[in-house]
Amino acid sequence: MTKPISDRAEVALEYPDKFYSGTFERSSRFDASMDATGVLLVLERPGSEDVRKSVHIHIHYGLLADIVAQLSSQASKIPADEIHRDQLKDAVSQFNRALQAAPKR
User: Fold this and answer.
1) Residue 43: how many CB atoms within 10 A of its CB?
2) What are the structural domain ranges in the chain?
């Protein structure tokens, strides 16, 4: 199941001989899920063949932990009046509660 994107995402993919970039805004959708090895993020822009696009990213849990740790060391860069700051705090708290409640295997 996909959800509407509430803000914006920009994606760039660079190869030695090619460059791709795309923006996913409110008319786009996303899905985030977890499997046994990591997190899958899908960004989709619906529409006709000439505007339709999608990005699929799978990040293993170890890398995700490294990313979150690095971002946490830079949280002070988010302006105090940034409207999305509270959204981030709430989402991180919700994720932490879910991790604590998840059964250990």
Assistant:
1) 21
2) 3-101
Answer for the pair 44, 30: CB distance below 8 angstroms, yes or no.
yes
- Joined together, the tokens standing for residue 93 give 């708290």
What is the rounded CA–CA span in Å between residue 23 and residue 38?
A: 24
83: amino acid identity, one letter: I
Q: What is the pTM of this model?
A: 0.85
Q: Cβ distance 40 to 57 under 8 Å?
A: yes
pLDDT in tens, 31-83: 999 999 999 999 999 999 998 999 999 999 999 999 999 999 999 999 888 88
Shortest CA distance to 5 belongs to which of 17, 18, 23, 21? 23
